[in-house]
């Protein structure tokens, strides 16, 4: 399927960082986009944000000439979604705010519209309690920024229909994303839980004085980061287990792995720890403003994505939804 | 400095997978290498292993013509290290075996030789108790395979001298590696602890049926893996915190991060879990033998390393030893 035919008109609710990134991606894929945000300076903010990400969209190989020609702004939510094929909501991360938005959207949007929330923390089940047709709502959680990072976690609520999940998968795939449909609703979904697990040990090691933040970052980029960009943790251990692969690894090194878990740190982000982490961050990252560092990181990441696409480490994307 | 002048003669103790990889790297950087391994088929194994990794060495841009011209084999340990400038030990991961090896090496090797063990699990402090000059021994722990992954963790024992640490840093840097000197001896060092922390949550999510192994791997390669290949966890959160960077992130999202830690899984690798992980591995990775999958992964990783080198995400490697 083709996003520009099946989903021609998108409504983006909320013009913050995530909303801007989705808007840029949708526009670059030829969709008409209505942004709805009640803030008086929303249009100005969104246009400025789009200008900022346009170079990255271009580096990704997307057409960016007249990017905003099919963009409009409509503060009234019901008006904004009235003829949408897809609604991507990026409102405040508060349950009541989400419910109120979605009650309005459900009433005003066409029956065929795909209804997706970018929430990183509120279960679709809880939001959908406010809806007449809870089977229509799904979490489409991007890994920030959505225009750049391939992953979109599609997370069903208890009542989300298989049809909605399939539609969401088709939609994000057509945008060049790599969606994954989770089999269960779980707090933090998958990517953020993994990030949280790793970060806990990072905080422990820095708090214990084993390494500085900058040293730890270098260790990650020079080892596991490189590995996991090419092959995930299971595949990595499969390839590290010799000809017997992961089964061999689990049988022979599983006990040592399990034992290592009991030795992992359980730090807290108390005042002293936050002060230490803050001081090290100021030293490690002071040399350049965040936006410039981020732009350089993003350029490097695009170069990496291109290299990966050209060398295709996997025979076929078996895991894709 | 230049490895081929300061460290011209290397002794590699143990001709297993790690020993072979170090041997290939040393040879490709112009060192004379003596491999010492008491197994009768050691020479055959090492030569076969070197042939297997030669294409990767070539793709890394290293000279591989006549790679084995400066390679010899000497089963007798004392003979093997007699005129070594550096000894890299990859013997059995048992304390007594390491102590016996190093007692012999210390007596037989020149006084100026750098003495490094590849151990991933035994503290230099414990091994060095067998030595007259414990300040000379250091852990030089590669992330497998050493000829490919940039990281080498240099881990001091309690008595390792600053001079030894500096020499180890110079040696691995001259081989094109990215060594990191840890500030403290800690079980599992840094990279394996981080890997263990992430893998624990991976096992939890698969055991709970949230995702399959293949789906989890795809989530990682399409999000955090990509990120961490370019910027480590602290830098990633620094860039995710807006203009206020990591300090802002810690102040505003620290409590939510800390709360998320309490919700992480604490799985065990019991029989049922190992059976589930094994069954999924057979399904996910059955299509191709491990060596072919590994070779493809390695090619992809080399492509990625080249792309990163060309785009240089960081202004200077501040964290390097």
TrEMBL record, chains A, B:
**Protein name (database record):** 3-hydroxyacyl-CoA dehydrogenase family protein
**Keywords carried by this UniProt record:** Membrane, Oxidoreductase, Transmembrane, Transmembrane helix
- All copies of domain 3-hydroxyacyl-CoA dehydrogenase C-terminal, residue ranges: 188-250
Q: Report whether Transmembrane shows up as a keyword of the record.
A: yes
Kindly tell me the pathway this chain contributes to. Answer: Lipid metabolism; butanoate metabolism
The EC designation for this entry is 1.1.1.35
Q: Known InterPro entries for this protein?
A: 3-OHacyl-CoA_DH_CS, 3-OHacyl-CoA_DH_NAD-bd, 3HC_DH_C, 6-PGluconate_DH-like_C_sf, 6PGD_dom2, NAD(P)-bd_dom_sf
What's this protein's family per the entry? Belongs to the 3-hydroxyacyl-CoA dehydrogenase family.
One molecular function GO term is: (3S)-3-hydroxyacyl-CoA dehydrogenase (NAD+) activity
Supply the source organism for this entry: Streptomyces gamaensis
- Residues forming the 3-hydroxyacyl-CoA dehydrogenase NAD binding domain are 10-180
| Transmembrane segments annotated in the record for this chain | 12-31
**Does the entry feature the keyword ATP-binding, yes or no?**
no
């Amino acid at each position: 399927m083709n996003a520009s035919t099946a989903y021609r008109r998108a409504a983006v609710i909320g013009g913050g960082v995530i909303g801007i990134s989705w808007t840029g991606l949708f526009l670059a894929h030829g969709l008409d986009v209505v942004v709805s945000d009640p803030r008086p300076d929303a249009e100005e903010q969104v246009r400025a944000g789009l200008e900022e990400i346009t170079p990255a969209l271009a580096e990704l190989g997307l057409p960016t000439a007249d990017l905003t020609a099919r963009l409009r702004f409509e503060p009234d939510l019901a008006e904004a979604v009235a003829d949408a094929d897809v609604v991507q909501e990026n409102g405040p991360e508060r349950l009541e705010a989400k419910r109120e938005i979605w009650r309005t959207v459900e009433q005003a949007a066409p029956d065929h519209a795909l209804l997706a929330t970018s929430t990183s923390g509120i279960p679709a089940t809880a939001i959908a309690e406010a809806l007449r047709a809870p089977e229509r709502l799904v979490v489409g959680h991007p890994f920030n920024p959505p225009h750049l990072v391939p992953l979109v976690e599609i997370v069903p609520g208890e009542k989300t229909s298989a049809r909605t999940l399939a539609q969401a998968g088709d939609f994000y795939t057509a945008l060049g994303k790599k969606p994954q449909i989770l089999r269960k609703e779980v707090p933090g979904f998958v990517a953020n839980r993994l990030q949280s697990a790793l970060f806990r040990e990072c905080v422990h090691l820095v708090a214990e004085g084993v390494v500085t933040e900058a040293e730890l970052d270098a260790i990650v980029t020079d080892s596991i980061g490189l590995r996991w960009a090419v092959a995930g943790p299971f595949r990595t251990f499969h390839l590290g287990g010799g000809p017997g692969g992961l089964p061999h690894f689990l049988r022979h090194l599983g006990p040592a792995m399990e034992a290592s878990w009991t030795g992992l740190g359980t730090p807290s982000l108390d005042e002293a720890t936050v002060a230490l982490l803050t001081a090290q961050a100021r030293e490690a990252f002071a040399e350049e403003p965040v936006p410039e560092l981020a732009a350089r990181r993003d350029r490097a990441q695009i170069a990496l994505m291109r290299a990966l696409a050209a060398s295709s480490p996997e025979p076929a994307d078996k895991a894709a939804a």
